[in-house]
Design brief:
By secondary structure, the chain is an alpha+beta fold. The protein is about 20% helix and about 25% strand. The protein has 10 helices and 23 strands. Strands 13, 14, 15, 16, 17, 18, 19 and 23 form an 8-stranded antiparallel sheet that branches. A 4-stranded antiparallel sheet has the order 2-3-4-9, with no helix packed on it. A 4-stranded antiparallel sheet has the order 5-6-7-8, with no helix packed on it.
């Protein structure tokens, strides 16, 4: 359990808070690219307690700036996109993507007052369907050469969803792999579908992922320190000769990379909106076949409302809970979509979980390690140290992958076998010609 003081440090992310300052030293998803596809490419963004507006100017550049005009506080989400920037309808002040005030048309022609006024602004970059922002001090760090960033657009699909809870509750689910044997347990095998993670076969065992997780629910979890955070290697003993290996990754501070099927992995960020709401952003990355974006988008349009990206199954309708289904089909009784299972798990403890009441076990070692890294990073920043695991232009290219795989191997030499399975997946791919880091 944590003290109330440490829980507060880990969960508050607004400007000037220790955790907020730490998270701002890393690129964070700000919006999906599709949110700016309409006739008016501007959208409100609330990120780590800051109210902002994201827009695309007439040169195709993205700007993420303070939502309030510095003149009289008018809402710039209603601004006019013209003349190389975003113009406030109140008095015509014009701002570019860097927050500079270009014009104040009602001021005297010779006035230089516009040069003394700026909006807070943050650099933005678009990668495979997500617009990322850097909200920290100094120049933005480079991004790693991870699969989700270097894969061609044809092999990726991006989406997001709203959860009504603190960001830490969300990210901690991804570093506690034992929950999959329970929270995502299907009482019978089912045909794999888009969005259903545990449907395909696991390695060469002839068993589905569903069966492995259901029948072998006491895994061993090993943590490995990496240059980007930590790797979680979860093993389940299938027989005297066979072992199941599931490799997931925690990329500091709030990204997880996990296998979805033998051909697809998920890179998922958990991003604070404020202290009681967060987004999950995901890039689905395929190695062999091109992604059927229409099928994935159509499925999600059945599952989510727009433009707020809320799951149609949520706490307002008891997460679709059906006691008969819980008895005969799924462990939760909340349908087949694992995102709904996760949403219940992270929202039901309350908007900000009181961690003074928790009792962590052996399988929570990933959660413990992440919290230690976060607290160490906050203290280091306060003492003037560089942010942990932040890449430099010299070493960014060294970080590829990361390897994320669900497979079965012979027990003998399994530590060298599962990386070989990942390498084989990459060798089959037309684009993933580098081994994972």
């Amino acid at each position: 359990m944590l003290s109330a003081e440490l829980n507060k440090q880990l969960t508050e992310t607004g400007p000037g808070t220790p955790c907020g300052d730490l998270l701002r030293h890393y690129w964070q998803p700000a919006a999906l690219s599709e949110e700016l596809d309409g006739s008016r490419p501007a959208v409100a963004v609330r990120l780590m307690g800051e109210d902002l507006v994201l827009f695309k100017d007439d040169r195709g550049r993205y700007g993420l700036v303070d939502r309030r005009c510095p003149h009289r506080g008018a809402d710039l989400c209603y601004g006019r996109l013209e003349d190389g920037g975003l113009r406030c309808p109140f008095h015509g002040w014009l701002f570019d993507v860097h927050g500079a005030c270009l014009e104040q048309p009602a001021e005297p022609a010779a006035s230089n007052f516009h040069r003394k006024v700026r909006l807070a602004s943050y650099p933005c970059e678009e990668f495979n369907g997500i617009i990322f922002a850097y909200m920290g001090p100094g120049a933005p760090p480079p991004l790693p050469g991870f699969d989700c960033f270097v894969a061609p657009e044809s092999h990726t699909f991006a989406f997001k969803g709203l959860w009504e809870c603190n960001w830490l509750q969300a990210v901690e689910v991804g570093v506690a792999p034992s929950h999959a044997s329970f929270l995502h347990r299907y009482l019978d095998d089912h045909d794999p579908e888009y969005g259903l993670q545990f449907g395909g076969e696991s390695g060469d065992s002839g068993m589905t992922q569903t069966q492995v997780l259901r029948d072998y629910d006491c895994p061993k979890i090993n943590l490995e320190e990496t240059g980007f955070g930590m790797r979680l290697v979860t093993t389940r003993d299938i027989s005297e000769d066979t072992i199941h290996v599931r490799v997931t990754n925690s990329v500091f501070p709030n990204l997880i990379v996990i296998p979805m099927t033998s051909d697809m992995c998920i890179s998922q960020w958990h991003v604070p909106i404020d202290d009681t709401h967060c987004w999950w952003y995901a890039i689905f990355t395929a190695f062999d076949e091109e992604v059927d974006k229409k099928a994935m988008r159509d499925q999600r349009r059945e599952l989510y409302t727009f433009p707020d990206y809320r799951s149609r199954i949520n706490k307002s309708n008891q997460y679709g809970f059906n006691p008969e289904e819980q008895r005969t089909q799924t462990y939760t009784g909340m349908g087949l979509d694992i995102n709904v299972h996760d949403q219940w798990a992270v929202e039901s403890p309350g908007p900000i979980f009181d961690r003074t009441r928790e009792h962590l076990g052996t399988t929570d070692k990933g959660i413990i390690a992440l919290r230690k890294n976060l607290l160490r990073g906050m203290k280091g920043l306060a003492d003037g140290a560089p942010p942990p695991y932040q890449l430099s232009s010299e070493n960014a290219g060294q970080f590829t992958g990361p390897m994320a795989i669900d497979t079965t191997t012979p027990r003998e030499n399994w530590q060298s076998e599962w990386p070989r399975h990942d390498a084989q997946k990459r060798e089959r791919s037309l684009w993933a010609n580098k081994p994972g880091s």
